[in-house]
Structures are given as structure tokens and as C-alpha cells.
Task: structure prediction
Amino acid sequence: MAIICRLSSTVCLFLFLSAEFLSLSLGDVGNAAHYDPPYIPTACYGSDVSQFPTSNMFGAAGERAWDNGASCGRQYLVRCISAALPTTCFPDKSIQIRIVDRALTSVSRPSVPGTTIVLSIAAFSAIANLSASSVNIEFQQ
Ligand SMILES: *[C@@H]1O[C@H](CO)[C@@H](O)[C@H](O)[C@H]1NC(C)=O
Result:
């Protein structure tokens, strides 16, 4: 890149911005399970269910995403990228979810322990077939 930058500062700026854009748009890769009601946001909001988005698009943070509680209220764009059964992911479906609880201590237990994010039934079934207990996801804040 240094050589190109010496030739033309315009090209240099373009390459820099492209790299920046790519790193922002790719997001992180992890996996997601789902959990059933009752949804009680114990770790983030106690029993105050007014924090749930009316869309019911929410989830509980796995330990990797929990961030010592700082993840409460964070919004993520989530998309299903692969699963054990190839037809599980709904192509080109992304959802925006809000973190309302910690998966490790959620009242309702995840379909699979130890995933990055545990999604509400509404959220999971918007991006993948609910008959799968977990899927691989791409997510970004
Ligand atoms: C979900 O998967 C089940 C079992 O593999 C299948 O019978 C069902 O048709 C699928 N539903 C959708 C919406 O793809």
C-alpha cells in the first residue's frame, strides 16, 4: 500500500476507505441457540419486561458477548450463515436484536449451552428453521 500511496494520494485514500468499510461490514462469526418463554431479563433488568423490544426481537448474551454486563441493551444485526442441515438458514434474512439478559443465568434455558447469543423464538425463527437447536451466525453491533 505504501508504494501506491506514494504514486497517488487519491488511490491511497480509496484503498484505506475500502479496507475500513470491509472490516465494518463483515462483523463477527459465532453461533446462536434459542430459548423459550418465560422471558425474564434477570441479569440486565431484573423482572422489568418493559425493556423487551415490542418486535420480540431480543436475546441473551453468551459469555463471549456478555462483556461483564456492558452488553445489556446492545443492538446486534444477526444473520444465519450455516447449520448442520444445509436448508436451515433462511437466505438473505437479517434481524436486529437487543440484548436483554445473560444466557448463563437466564430463567429459561438455551436449546444449546455455550453459544455466542441465545435468541428469542421470534428472533431465531426469523432467520432460521426453529427445528435446529443452534446455527452459525454473523453478527455486528
Ligand atoms: C424445518 O425443518 C423441518 C425438519 O427438518 C421441516 O420439516 C420443515 O419443513 C422446515 N420448515 C421450514 C419453514 O423450512
Q: What stands out?
A: Helices lie at 2-7, 9-26, 42-45, 63-66, 121-127. The longest strand covers residues 94-102.
